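Before the break, one more example. Copy the sequence into your notebook; we will annotate it together after we see the structure.
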Amino acid sequence: MYSEKFYRAIGHAFYAVAHADKQVKKEEFQTLIKIVREQWVPLEEDTDEFGEDVAFQIVSVFDWLADNDVKEKEALKHFKEYVEEHKKLFTSDVTQKILKTCRKIAETTHGISKKENKILHEIENILS
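Here is what the structure looks like once it is written out:
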């Protein structure tokens, strides 16, 4: 239904939230994996060249961004460019699912921090 590029793009948004405090915590990554399995994989029937559900591109790109310590602003820029080029993919349901996932990642450790809240608002603005 959605392309690998779509899932990579939203992975950038999820990473930006997790990296708002300049580090990605193990618990945030574990939360993401759980949400992808429970919420995103059931939406998708397509698989990548390795036979994995393409929704797992979210986890792959998130992990790559974390390994390379990409700044959240750069990740958000990538996400914004994708959304602007593919606005029709971001229906109300998809937008709500993205925002819900972002909030759950932000709430994982000690609730939503000011920095995470700022990133959440930026993502909301990009999607509106």
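The first helix runs from residue 4 to 18. The chain is about 65% helix and 0% strand. Try to locate both features in your own notes.
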